[in-house]
User: Fold this.
Amino acid sequence: MEHNERKELVKSVITEHWRKIFNYAFRMTLDHERAAGIVEETFLRAYLGAESLPEDSLRAEDWLLRICSHILEQRLPRQPEVSFDLLDETLRSEATRTDVVRSLTDPERDFMLWELKQGCMTAVINCLSPGERAAFVMTNIMQKSESEAAKSLGITKSAFKVRLSRARKKVVDYLAPRCEHVDPMNPCRCPARVGTALNKGFIRSPGEVQLRKPVTPFGRYGAGPNNEDAPLRDVTTIYQNLPNPDAPDDFEARLAVNIDNGEWDKVLAKKQAQSQ
Assistant:
């Protein structure tokens, strides 16, 4: 493959797929900086192996997810770094506080509630082992079929089904008796937990205006337009409708700079020299 052809091909792939790869990496790490590093490594490896990049867009996405999954497998500890007990201690160990939400303007309040829901739901799946977490994220957030997900993770379909079944049971067992988004009668309610979450640094305070893509609200944050929450709502639906995490500023441009300034070409030349 010619040099310029490689550069333009990978740039176009970055533009099309980086948001989905970042979403996957963030759900797996619960950390924006770690996710950014893993995504950058993913596209570096894609650049080095551009000859193997599938032409079909969906197959290319699965190929990138397989690379990203391999990197995550190497970097993540085998045991989860957070636990359900730690999550309870962080958000539910103190008395509820509604004063913080009442003192906010409507845009600030909506922002905080989305941030808390996003952070809490991602934290829940980070209590799973990396293998179970990957199976859950692939199916319930990335919305991959079982066959596609198993292929991206490099495991058999039967092994994937076992991981997914275990992951879903653990997530549902934790959320069903606690979370208002699963059952509006549950005791853990986002407006009452915002103060505690802010105090403990679980979510950030609103410091700037953010223009977010409109989403279908849930619960009182909606079950659909003009609908109320139904008891024991499907956990899968909740995760499928989480907003995408915010990526670092100018992240796509940062990836393109690595190509334009020749940084990735140096790695490629070293790899080619070693193979000779």
User: Anything to note?
Assistant: The radius of gyration is 20 Å. The chain is about 65% helix and 0% strand.
